[in-house]
Design brief:
This is DUF445 domain-containing protein. It is built from 21 helices and two strands. It is 79% helix and 2% strand. Among the domains are: 186 residues, no CATH class; 137 residues, no CATH class.
Length: 475
């Protein structure tokens, strides 16, 4: 029954299967290669067809269900058209047979209903195909104007959905700061975020190659050290340490260790002193001199250890003070420190140490990320809970988070609006025209069939009203 209605005839004129005998309809490939320019005229396109989107070349079970609904509505609308046609024929016959004035009213209503039904059938059909297969201008709008519709859709989305004002108003109404805070304040949500962050961190460290990271870290440290002079900074730090007396503990430790070392190595010290004596001196003299020097050295170290006001300590303080000043102001001292720095950084042992530091740090971070009870994950979880509690109750923090989110979203939509809208345009351009038409019709065709039904009903009522007014005026 469906094949007998005019709309189906139009569908056969456009959507016939390729290869069918005697079929003169335009296939999907032909439509991609040809563009209609007027009634009965075609020109070949100069550009290759865009790749077809797979989503628009197949029908899902839901699409098939919608197509069945469209077919049922087509039958209903066509049945109503046939019904008013039969009513018109019967009312016209009855009027000729002298049935009475009522037959004229019924015939006028049925006639207008047929006109309305046919007009609306033509309008609905013209959206998707050429009615009756005739290349009437401004018909088959969707398949022939698909690309222009895609451009218009992209511009509409860009102007009405991707504007900064719309984005700000929508995000401000959502209240992301308070919602995110309330969500993060829940322990299970904080656990989930912590686990996801740990997994992402492990994945990132796994992807990175140690050799590449070591090279980057080594180069960064070396370049930073070469670019910045370290002598003034060391001088300021040393000056502050001496002024605060922070070096005294170091001096105490050195004196204690020197005293202990002299006590336990007395023979070695005396042997070294005796070994440096001239060969012509008697051995007992060398021994006496060695013992004397050792005792004096031990006494000096002991006094320096036990007496905070020892002159040697004061001399050391003055030396460190002068050295700190030279590091900041003396050109020769600063140059020597820079040369020493270059020599130290250039040594292979130092570079190996810098490279090995990354391996140690990476292993430590991976182990901490994998261990649910590690200090790293516990601190991250606690920080998330604290942040969530603050965001849920602090209006100022909520406003700050909202401004950050709004600013980021506005930057994205204003900077990449063209790319976003071009995604819509390019996607629509890549759809197959025939299949796209059929799919769109499956989604909105059922509602469009109500236009045909309403056209039949409204046309009948309008025809009845016009006929009635005409009879009244004529009378």
């Amino acid at each position: 029954m469906e094949r007998t209605e005019p709309e189906d005839a139009g569908a056969e004129g456009l959507s016939a299967r390729p290869g069918a005998p005697g079929n003169r309809a335009t296939t999907a490939v032909d439509q991609a290669e040809r563009t209609t320019t007027g009634p009965g005229r075609e020109r070949h396109a100069t550009t290759a067809p865009a790749p077809t989107n797979r989503a628009m070349t197949s029908f899902s079970p839901a699409d098939e269900e919608k197509r069945r609904g469209v077919r049922q509505m087509k039958l209903t609308a066509t049945g109503l058209l046939l019904f008013v046609a039969v009513v018109y024929v019967l009312a016209t016959w009855a009027s000729h047979e002298g049935a009475g004035p009522w037959a004229g009213y019924v015939a006028a209503a049925a006639e207008a209903g047929m006109v309305g039904a046919l007009a609306d059938w033509f309008a609905v059909t013209a959206l998707f195909r050429h009615p009756l297969g005739l290349p009437i201008p401004h018909t088959a709008i969707i398949p022939t104007k698909k690309d222009q519709l895609g451009v218009s859709l992209g511009e509409f989305v860009g102007e009405n959905f991707l504007s900064s004002d719309v984005v700000r108003q929508r995000l401000r109404a959502v209240g992301i700061g308070s919602r995110l805070g309330a969500w993060l304040a829940e322990p299970e949500h904080a656990d989930r975020v912590t686990a996801e962050l740990a997994a992402a961190l492990r994945g990132a460290l796994t992807v990175l190659r140690d050799s590449d990271v070591q090279a980057v870290v080594g180069e960064a440290i070396t370049r930073r050290a070469d670019a910045q002079e370290i002598a003034p900074g060391i001088g300021k730090m040393l000056e502050k340490i001496v002024a605060d007396g922070g070096h005294k503990r170091v001096v105490d430790l050195v004196c204690i260790r020197a005293h202990d070392w002299l006590v336990f190595h007395d023979e070695q010290v005396m042997d070294a002193i005796q070994g440096g004596a001239p060969g012509w001196t008697p051995r007992f003299v060398d021994k006496k001199v060695g013992e004397r020097v050792y005792k004096e050295l031990l006494r000096f170290v002991t006094e320096m250890r036990d007496a905070p006001s020892h002159p040697a300590r004061g001399a050391l303080d003055r030396f460190l003070t002068d050295f700190a000043s030279d590091l900041q102001s003396d050109t020769d001292t600063r140059a020597r420190v820079e040369r020493l720095k270059g020599e130290v950084l250039g040594r292979g042992e130092v570079q190996d140490l810098i490279a090995s530091a990354w391996t140690a740090v990476r292993s430590m971070i991976v182990s901490a990320a994998e261990d649910e009870r590690s200090e790293l994950r516990l601190r991250v979880r606690a920080s998330l809970l604290s942040l969530g509690a603050r965001m849920a109750t602090d209006p100022r923090l909520q406003a700050k988070v909202d401004r950050w989110v709004e600013g980021a979203a506005v930057y994205v939509v204003t900077t990449y609006r063209t790319e976003i809208t071009s995604l819509i345009t390019d996607t629509v351009a890549g759809w197959d025209a025939e299949h796209t038409t059929r799919k769109i019709e499956a989604h909105i065709g059922r509602d469009l069939q109500f236009i045909r039904i309403n056209g039949t009903v409204v046309g009948s009522l309008a025809g009845l009203l016009i006929y009635t007014v005409s009879r009244i005026v004529g009378a």
